[in-house]
Design a protein that fits this description.
heterodimer, A: 400 residues, alpha/beta, Rossmann fold, five-stranded parallel β-sheet, four-stranded parallel β-sheet, B: 295 residues, ABC transporter involved in vitamin B12 uptake, BtuC, two-stranded antiparallel ribbon, 2 strands, globular
């Protein structure tokens, strides 16, 4: 009798467990970024940590979703990135690729994702073409883009009286795009561009170009470059007394990790646009504390925060759709509002553009900072509708 | 006021001066390479990594030990030079009798390992290193604002370059070195410890790279790739000057810095390639380099 009951109970138990087992979805997410070059600090291992935190906060295990995270180094080379993306999708069963800084690699991965009908949530790359003429039904561009950077920093500087500009432009696709977008914003706001110099990429010494910018008497020197080029130009501008001489620097793409590398003495006064800063409110602070503990004390950049937020939203969509089919999940992602402590409430447009406010910051003086990583003061908030390109102007084929 | 190709003379003077400043880095780095090649016949591809190590040692001195820039200017070359001596004893001495290619591959491999280690510990975006307080600020020269620190870089590197030239070309020690290169067996027969001379020479060449690294720390970002970006240009400088020629390396270093500076005014897009164009032209006309002796 006792044995019978036990057997029956076991059988019943097994019967009840079975549907739950059948419902179990397992997702494999690949974090593809620069793990050894100039963008390794702003994406790299930190983005993998951010992805793990997303899985933890989503409580995936309790919800019957099994998540596995893999990572790889694309070395900022489109060919390397494409090979990894293909292998991940074809052989390793990866469902979505996250991060992918460096615009040229991002465009390639976005195309492959479309061909293989998977999902790409981009956080690291800049080019607004990802949601413009190269937009894809399988790609979401999460954190920022060149249009928003130009709108934020460019627009604000002109409004503050910086109506004449001289550009130091990194001589490759990204620099040209940024200069183009910023020029459009400046002229629209009533300012003018008095000159530009195309600097070989990557460069070490920018003093010659800075002297040319100084001689132009432009009120603002726009830095349409990134990474090491940006830190070197800022450092040398301070050395040659350019900022002290009254000209303002606009670092169009500056990450918190760049400011950390520069030190406040050289970076002070720099105006920049970001969608995330660790010290913005209690939510971002709490998350960033957890992140920093896992990342050797380094605070997250907006790119890493975007990887967290993007994966979290994806997992919510998988949960709601009870499926990981790319088309179904993408429809859910675009239908559901986004909400997390790092970027607040937002949404995803039909062209794949994630909408959230952008923030305009000024880098603090050394005397205003309370210590390492206390770097920004907020100057203004740009509502999402103002920061990102109006849908009709994007040239994306998904917009009807 | 006359203008040259649309560029006012003040701007031109400024650019010439800046070119000389960059030239001082080329000169001091290519000098180290020339010394090592001339006396050891080794193409030292680790030179860029050793330059980077110089900058990092300066940063470590300041942040871990509280040792200032001036002391680092002495400490970094000694420390990095010592690692060079270890490398020479452990690796290079064993392959001295083989083809150049082995030394090149070995030092290139070492450079990759060293850069990888630094990147692993310190990340890739660089570390801040301030200008020493005695050298902040600058002079208004009328045609440009010259930061004091840049002036110091030119003076320091000129002094170091000329002193090195003097020691090798004009002193007894230098004559031993040159004799050891010409005919090591005979020189050893005269009771001179040739392997020791060779080891010390390599250490000195490496120390020169580290010295340049400390000079560079306050103006360029201290990051693991700083040497890799520069080393190719420096090799071009050495080839143009003539492999192994001491004076050739110094003169070419400064003059190429100057030419590069002027290119930045007239056609900035070409400023990173102009040195290689010159290299091609020189090799076509004088394959041994401007100051080299034909083999």
């Amino acid at each position: 009798m006792n044995l019978k009951t036990l057997l029956a109970a076991t059988a019943l138990g097994a019967l009840m467990a079975a549907p739950a087992l059948a419902q179990q979805i397992s997702v494999k997410a690949g974090v593809l970024n620069d793990r050894s070059g100039i963008y390794a600090d702003l994406s790299g291992e930190g983005s993998v940590i951010a992805a793990r935190l997303a899985v933890e906060d989503f409580k995936a295990a309790e919800k019957g979703i099994k998540v596995e995270i893999v990572s790889a180094d694309h070395q900022n080379k489109p060919d390397v990135g494409s090979t990894i993306a293909r292998q991940w999708y074809d052989q390793d069963g990866v469902d979505l690729i996250l991060d992918v800084p460096t615009s040229s690699v991002a465009l390639a991965v976005s195309q492959i994702t479309k061909d293989k009908n998977k999902i790409h949530i981009n956080s690291g790359a800049g080019t607004s073409d990802l949601t413009g003429k190269a937009c894809s039904p399988n790609t979401v561009h999460w954190t920022y883009d060149t249009y928003a950077l130009a709108q934020g920093t460019g627009g604000a500087m002109v409004k503050a009286g910086g109506d004449s500009w001289f550009f130091l432009t990194a001589d490759y696709a990204f620099g040209h795009a940024l200069e183009r977008d910023a020029t459009a914003v400046i002229t629209k706001a009533g300012g003018k561009v008095v000159g530009a110099v195309r600097t070989p990429f990557p460069g070490t010494d920018f003093s010659s170009f800075l002297l040319q910018a100084q001689a132009s008497k432009a009120k603002v020197i726009g830095l349409a470059n990134a990474g090491g080029d940006l830190t070197n130009s800022v450092k040398q501008a301070s050395e040659f007394g350019i900022t002290q001489g009254g000209q303002k620097l606009a670092g169009l793409l500056t990450f918190a990790s760049d400011v950390h590398a520069l030190g406040l003495q050289a970076a002070q006064g720099l105006v920049l646009t970001e969608s995330f800063y660790w010290d913005r409110d209690d939510g971002t602070r709490a998350w960033s504390e957890r992140f920093a503990k896992l990342n050797g004390g380094k605070k997250p950049t907006m790119v890493q925060a975007g990887v967290y937020s993007g994966l979290l939203h994806y997992l919510k969509a998988v949960e709601a759709a009870k499926s990981k089919d790319a088309a179904v999940v993408m429809a859910k992602m675009k239908e559901m509002p986004t909400d997390d402590p790092l970027f607040g409430k937002g949404s995803i447009r039909v062209n794949g553009r994630k909408m959230h406010p952008m923030y305009l910051y000024e880098v603090k003086k050394p005397s205003e900072s309370k210590g390492p990583w206390d770097y920004y003061k907020q100057i203004a908030v740009l509502p999402a509708e103002e920061a990102f390109q109006p849908l009709a102007e994007t040239g994306c084929s998904l917009v009807k | 006021m006359f203008e040259l190709l649309g560029v006012p003379p003040q701007a031109l003077f400024g650019q010439v001066l800046l070119g000389l400043i960059n030239g001082s880095f080329y000169a001091i780095l290519s000098l180290g390479l020339a010394v090592i090649f001339g006396l050891l016949n080794i193409i030292n591809f680790a030179h860029g990594a050793q330059y980077m190590m110089g900058a990092f040692v300066a940063w470590m001195c300041l942040n871990y030990l509280g040792v200032n820039y001036w002391a680092a200017l002495l400490i970094a070359p000694v420390v990095v030079g010592a690692t060079g001596i270890v490398i020479e004893r452990v690796f290079l001495a064993r392959i001295a009798k083989y083809d150049h290619l082995y030394g090149l591959l070995l030092t290139f491999g070492l450079a990759l390992i060293i850069q990888g280690l630094f990147r692993n510990y310190y990340g890739s975006s660089g570390l801040p290193y301030g200008i020493p307080p005695q050298l902040t600020g600058g002079q208004n020269l009328g045609f440009m604002f010259l930061p004091t620190y840049r002036g110091w870089v030119v003076v320091a590197s000129l002094v170091v370059c000329l002193a090195t030239w003097f020691v090798i070309e004009k002193t007894k020690l230098g004559s031993y070195l040159r004799a050891a290169t010409e005919n090591p067996t005979l020189t050893q027969a005269f009771g001179i410890n040739v392997p020791l001379l060779v080891t010390l020479t390599y250490g000195f060449g490496v120390a020169l790279a580290a010295f340049a690294g400390v000079l560079a720390a306050p103006i360029y970002a201290v990051n693991p790739n700083m040497g890799a970006d520069l080393i190719i240009v420096v090799f071009a400088v050495v080839v143009i000057g003539g492999m192994g020629s001491i004076m050739g390396a110094i003169v070419t270093g400064f003059s190429l810095g100057l030419i590069e500076g002027l290119t930045k005014v007239f056609y900035p897009e070409a400023s990173s390639t102009v040195i290689f164009i010159i290299m091609v032209l020189v090799l076509l006309v004088k394959p041994a380099g401007l100051f080299g002796r034909a083999a």
